[in-house]
Design brief:
The strands form 2 sheets. An 8-stranded mixed beta sheet has the order 1-2-5-6-7-8-9-10, sandwiched between helices. A two-stranded parallel ribbon has the order 3-4. Helix 7 links the parallel strand 6 and strand 7. The protein is built from 12 helices and 10 strands.
Length: about 325
């Protein structure tokens, strides 16, 4: 009887702790309401629907949809989109990402051609292509990447091609497959500071990402001087101001040309929470510091994302050479 009462009491204590934690979590969400500077403007739904119909008709995916990008209305109003290769399911388990996590299906052999057709239909002058991680494939889908770049160029000779690639698990030959297709911008996001990698990117290694960017910069210097290297991070995940500055120094050590810094926004409840909303003044200060370090361009604002104003970023980098 005494044991039963103790167990029951313990159960009530555990239940009470759960309720208290739920209350605290709810209060935290209430405290971290989005500030005014994160409000977005809705664009013309007719243009958005035109892009959506095209993408659905060609069986394509966009990171705009899958990552729940806050700029989707602005970009789709301008008939621009960031295409996502390899399906809509990722093999990794990043704490910030809204993309599905599971065993992905086979690659669509028609996808490179369909991306090229979509770029032509939209009349893009600068297209951004990214992908899910495909660690299930021996080459990380790098040849699929290369074919897509080639197909886009065949149908759109004047269009600049920017690629936002995964780390390919540090496989240099996979990176070279992409580089030999000669993208105009080679982007690989660091995503966060080194200290937070285990929590934010548990399947990735900070030093491996830096090594990839360094290899891409060496390719640029020896094979393709007109190519830019680029990387981006999210803030509001628990990093300190100076830790971001340290990361910027690391990127400059591997000769990274362009950097993006934007506010992390929790895509849904089971993803990492927002620790804080960074002020526009802090973003402006990082931009100032980065430009003084020698970046050709730093895009730093609450709504900045890797592909947001991507054409302007590349154009600004060219103008500073």
């Amino acid at each position: 009887m005494i044991e039963y009462q103790f167990a029951a009491a313990s159960g009530f204590m555990i239940e009470e702790k759960v309720l208290v934690q739920k209350f605290l979590n709810r209060k935290q969400r209430e405290r971290l309401k989005k500030p005014d500077w994160l409000k977005i403007k809705l664009g013309d739904p007719r243009n958005q629907n035109a892009v959506l119909e095209l993408i659905d008709g060609l069986n394509l995916h966009t990171v705009c949809q899958e990552a729940k990008c806050p700029n989707i209305f602005e970009c789709w109003t301008d008939k621009t989109a960031t295409f996502m290769l390899g399906g809509d399911t990722c093999t990794r388990h990043c704490g910030f990402c809204a993309v599905n996590k599971a065993v992905p299906g086979p690659l669509d052999p028609l996808e490179p051609q369909h991306v090229a057709e979509a770029v032509k239909h939209l009349g893009l002058a600068h297209t951004v292509i990214t992908s899910v991680n495909r660690d299930d494939l021996p080459d990380g889908a790098s040849m699929h990447w290369a074919e897509t770049i080639t197909k886009v160029r065949e149908l759109n000779s004047e269009c600049k091609v920017e690629v936002l690639i995964p780390d390919f698990n540090g496989d240099e030959s996979a990176l070279n497959n992409v580089l030999r297709a000669r993208p105009d911008v080679l982007n690989h996001n660091t995503e966060t500071i080194a200290r937070l990698y285990r929590r934010v990117r548990p399947d990735a290694i900070y030093e491996q990402s830096m090594e990839l960017l360094g290899r891409a910069a060496k390719w640029r210097d020896t094979e393709q001087p007109e190519m830019f290297t680029k990387s981006g991070i999210m803030v509001g995940l628990g990093e300190e101001f100076e830790e971001v500055v340290d990361l910027m120094r690391d990127l400059r050590k591997v000769s990274c040309d362009i950097m993006t810094i934007g506010q992390y926004l929790q895509p849904y409840e089971k993803r990492l929470p927002v620790e804080r909303y960074v002020t526009p003044e802090e973003f402006a200060e990082w931009k100032k510091i980065g430009e003084a370090m020698g970046f050709k361009h730093v895009e730093s604002s609450p709504l900045t994302r890797s592909s947001y104003h991507a054409r302007e970023q590349a154009d600004n980098g060219t103008s500073k050479e």
